[in-house]
Design a protein that fits this description.
By secondary structure, the protein is an all-alpha fold. The chain is 70% helix and 0% strand. The protein has a domain of 42 residues.
């Protein structure tokens, strides 16, 4: 037996499976128990209820935050300063409904004339 025949015989023995290879593999797989449990089966019953309730509450809070917009709260300082604030200062400091340029310019000029 020369060296080439030896390597060919070893290669066929190692890399080419025999005729009963699939039957042996399937028999070995059937003998091994598979993992049939999920995460809910591993936890105790009391933990499942607590986690389900916590998940439901988190989803409810997220839904409320998404559907109900937050409005800024006015504090005591803002309500006191509002009485002292002129319309010109109100226009500059508050970022609500800015009118057209000409109206803003007229209000600013009128505010300068009053002083």
């Amino acid at each position: 037996m020369n060296l080439k025949q030896f390597f060919e015989s070893e290669k066929s023995r190692v890399f080419v499976p025999d005729t009963f290879f699939t039957k042996r593999v399937m028999a070995r797989l059937q003998g091994v128990s598979t993992w049939k449990y999920g995460i809910w089966e591993l936890m105790p019953n009391s933990t499942r209820q607590v986690l389900a309730l916590a998940l439901a509450l988190i989803l409810c809070f997220v839904a409320i935050e998404l559907f109900i917009p937050q409005t800024p709260q006015r504090g005591v300082v803002e309500s006191v300063l509002e009485s002292e604030e002129s319309p010109v200062e109100s226009l500059i400091y508050n970022d609500t409904d800015v009118p057209a340029r000409q109206v803003v310019l007229q209000q600013l000029i009128a505010g300068e004339d009053e002083r």
